[in-house]
Amino acid sequence: MSRATKDSRFSHRFETLQQLSRDVLAHARKQGATACDVDVSEGFGQSVTVRHGEVETIEYNRDKGIGVTIYLGQQKGSASTSDFSTAALKDTVDAALSIARFTAADPCAGLAEAELLAKDSPDLDLYHPWDLPVESAIDLARRCEAAAFAVSPLVSNSEGASVSTQEAQFVSANSLGFMGGYPSSRNYIACSVIAGEGDAMQRDDWYSTARRGDALAAPETIGDYAARRALSRMGSRKVKTCQVPVLFEAPLAAALIGSFVHAVSGGSLYRKSTFLPDSLGTRIFPEHVTIGERPHLLQGLASSAFDSDGVATRDREVVVDGMLQGYFLSVYTARKLGMQTTGNAGGSHNLIVHPGKLDFPALLKKMNRGLLVTELLGHGVNYVTGDYSRGAAGYWVENGQIQHPVEEITIAGNLRDMFMNIVAIGNDTLCRGSKQLGSILVERMQVAGR
Predict the structure, then answer these.
(1) What sequence ranges are listed for the domain Metalloprotease TldD/E N-terminal (predicted)?
(2) What is the average pLDDT value for the chain, to the nearest integer?
C-alpha cells in the first residue's frame, strides 16, 4: 500500500507526526532540556456487537496524543496532551520541564546510549486496513452468532458476537537523533454464548485476532466452536481434592509463560519482588523447553523494529534447553541492575515456545488421569514467593479421555516447581498476542474440590 493511501485513512499525514516530533524536540532544547523523548500517535476504529440477531452496540473511536519526557541532567519530568496545536505542544514541554525541576535526580535516568538506538525501521507488514462498512461488520457478527445458535437448541442465550477493526500510526523520536514509527492494524471476531436450561447454565467463548481481516477465522467457525465449548461444560461438577497432572489449554498456557516473563523482567528483578532472582544462566525449565524471541516476524502481533526506548530489537533465545539465557530489560531497569538493555521496554516481542511432537489428543493420553484446565478465575499469583492459586474450570480426564466437565475448584502449586515439572508442550500452537505456544502439561498440582 502506498504512503498516500495509508495517510488518507488517518487524520494526519505520517510526515506531520514526524514534524510534530521535531517541533517538540526543538522547543525542549530551546528551553534548556538536556535530553528529550517524544511519542506522537493517532488511531481509529469501529466495533459492533450483535446479540440475538439485533445490533446492541456500534462504537467508533478516534484518538490522538503526544507524550513528552524531559531530562534536566538526571532529573526527569513527563507530560502529555491530545492537542496538536503549537501552543499546546509548548505548554506540554514546559509542564514536563517544570516537573523535572522538582524531581530528585536518578542516576539511572536518561535516554538509551546512541549506539543502541534503531538506525532504520524495516517494513514488518503490520498494516492491513480492513475497509469494512458497518453494515458488513454487523452481518459478520450476525453470521457468527447464528452459527452458535444453530449448533443446538440448548444454546439458549448469548452475550453477543463482536467484530472490531482498529488502525493506528505513531512516531517516536528523541534528542539523540532517533526517529522511527509505522502504521499498524488489528482486527478480531469474538462470540460468547450460554448453553443449558434452568439453573444449569454454562457459558464459553472463542475469538480470532489478526493484522489482516482475511486472516481471521470464519465467523461461522468461531460461533460454532464457542457453542460447542459451552455445551461441553453442561453438567459440570466438583472433583475430590487430589494431586494430579494438570493440562493448561493453549490460551491459558500463554498466561503461564506470561508469569515467567514477569518474574524475569527488570522491574521485578531490581525491586527484588520475584521468585527468580539472579536466575540468569540457571535452569528454570526442563531440558525440552526452549523459548525464542522473534521481534521481526512479518505480520506478528507483537513485532517491532525497536522498543519503547527506541532501542533496536533483535532475535534471541531466552531459554535454551531449560536454561535462562536472558532477562527482559529496558534501558532504565538494565541500569538499575548494572546490565545492558535487551530491547524490551514495553514488553516482549513474539515469544515462541518451541512445540513438542504431541498434538492435543496425545497430550491427554500422556496425562492419562488428571485435570484439563480451560478457564482460570482470580489473580492468585504471588511473584515474590512463586505461590500460585487460581479458581479453575475444565474437564476431568481418565485413561486419556475427557470424562466430564469440572467447575468450582482451585488449582495450586508454586511457579518454580510448575515450570520445572512441565512434562510436555503441545504442537496445538495458538497465537493471540505476544506469545505463541501450545498447551502445557504440568506433572502434578494440588486440585482442591470437595
Answers:
(1) 36-100
(2) 95
